[in-house]
């Protein structure tokens, strides 16, 4: 059967196959790298390839049995995004160590999806149900990525959070378009070509960024950077400011602290992260605030001072985050700690 394409469709396919080529290159790079984070990213690349090829300006009848495979990988995309999100935000995350009450139903659901798409062709109510679940998963990914975004001191992880939010937003837009837009819009050459060019541009950006930032900092370079940071006047100024009680300021943010030091916020994040080893600004503040509270709990003159008062004086906005931070750092509740003396 001959396939007749217009000039615009040829251009459309050019961008799609260029994107597929970049994604395959990325997959080869990830396979060669063989890191703990490779598997979810390889799966995500495979899912995107499925979407790129499935939405090409070619009639479904020309795909044959390949269409079911492409459709299956396309609908796996939200699950791949969730896996990537969990790995990116927690480098210690391992799928095998997830609770069984989550793993078993998830595996069963994926088996059902595999049968539905690969055998039944993905036509029916289950397809719509899966899209509904996909939207919920993407919203969860957005929440996880946005949560503590401004508190995160790891620049790479902060960037990953922002990219994941953008990726989820784009995929949710695609879902809405395919669910609610008319077939005339979905099948138009304008939509298809715009889709192809956008995918190629995003893939090119990701590939360029991934391949150019692939090299890890060697231990020797890391130790050299750390040694340089020790004599850093900005680090000295930061330590002096904190020792003077800057951490007691309520609603203190990385931006406010950077403003007091007279340096950009991103530079302060890097300083606290690389020189002091903190990946979270709240944890950095807690390293000052909790000892400050403990010192007053140890003092008999503060025996009748309410713990809530001490929490407010230490800069906390409410008692709940203070209690969590105290228990995490000291292994006891504030009341249990005070009762020791």
Please describe what this structure looks like:
The structure is a single chain. This protein is an all-alpha fold. It folds into two domains: 7-212, Rhopdopsin 7-helix transmembrane proteins (Up-down Bundle); 220-339, Arc Repressor Mutant, subunit A (Orthogonal Bundle), CATH 1.10.10. Helix content is 73%, strand content 0%. It is built from 17 helices and no strands. The chain has helices at residues 7-33, 38-54, 66-75, 77-89, 100-119, 125-146, 155-180, 183-186, 189-212, 219-230, 233-243, 254-261, 265-276, 281-298, 307-313, 319-330, 334-339. Helix 2 (38-54) crosses helix 3, helix 4 packs antiparallel against helix 7 and helix 14 (281-298) crosses helix 16. The radius of gyration is 26 Å and the shape is elongated. Residues 216-228 have low confidence and may be disordered. GO terms for molecular function: DNA-binding transcription factor activity; sequence-specific DNA binding. Keywords: DNA-binding, Membrane, Transcription, Transcription regulation, Transmembrane, Transmembrane helix. The chain crosses the membrane at residues 13-31, 38-58, 70-89, 101-119, 131-150, 162-182, 188-207. This is HTH araC/xylS-type domain-containing protein.
């Amino acid at each position: 059967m001959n396939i007749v394409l217009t000039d615009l469709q040829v251009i459309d396919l050019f961008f799609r196959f260029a994107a597929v080529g970049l994604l395959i290159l990325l997959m080869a790079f990830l396979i060669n790298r063989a890191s703990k984070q490779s598997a979810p990213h390889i799966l995500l690349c495979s899912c995107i390839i499925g979407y790129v090829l499935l939405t090409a300006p070619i009639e479904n009848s020309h795909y044959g049995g390949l269409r079911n495979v492409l459709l299956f990988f396309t609908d796996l995309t939200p699950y791949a995004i969730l896996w990537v999100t969990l790995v990116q935000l927690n480098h210690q995350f391992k799928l095998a160590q997830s609770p069984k009450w989550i793993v078993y139903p998830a595996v069963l659901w994926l088996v059902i999806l595999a049968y539905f798409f690969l055998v039944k062709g993905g036509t029916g109510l289950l397809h719509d149900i899966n899209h509904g679940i996909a939207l919920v998963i993407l919203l969860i990914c957005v929440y996880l990525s946005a949560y503590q975004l401004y508190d995160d001191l790891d620049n790479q992880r902060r960037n990953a959070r922002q990219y994941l939010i953008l990726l989820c937003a784009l995929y949710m837009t695609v879902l809405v378009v395919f669910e609610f837009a008319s077939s005339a819009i979905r099948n138009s050459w304008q939509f298809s070509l715009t889709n192809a060019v956008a995918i190629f541009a995003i893939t090119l950006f990701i590939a360029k960024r991934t391949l150019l930032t692939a090299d890890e900092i060697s231990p020797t370079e890391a130790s050299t950077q750390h040694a340089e940071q020790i004599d850093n006047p900005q680090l000295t100024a930061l330590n002096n400011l904190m020792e003077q009680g800057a951490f007691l300021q309520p609603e203190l943010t990385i931006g406010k602290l950077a403003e007091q030091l007279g340096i950009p916020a991103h530079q302060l994040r890097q300083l606290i992260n690389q020189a002091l080893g903190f990946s979270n600004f709240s944890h950095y503040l807690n390293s000052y605030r909790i000892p400050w509270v403990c010192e007053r709990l140890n003092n008999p003159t503060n025996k009748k001072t309410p713990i809530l008062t001490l929490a407010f004086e230490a800069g906390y906005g409410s008692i709940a985050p203070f209690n969590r931070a105290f228990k995490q750092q000291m292994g006891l509740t504030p009341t249990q700690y005070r009762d020791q003396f």
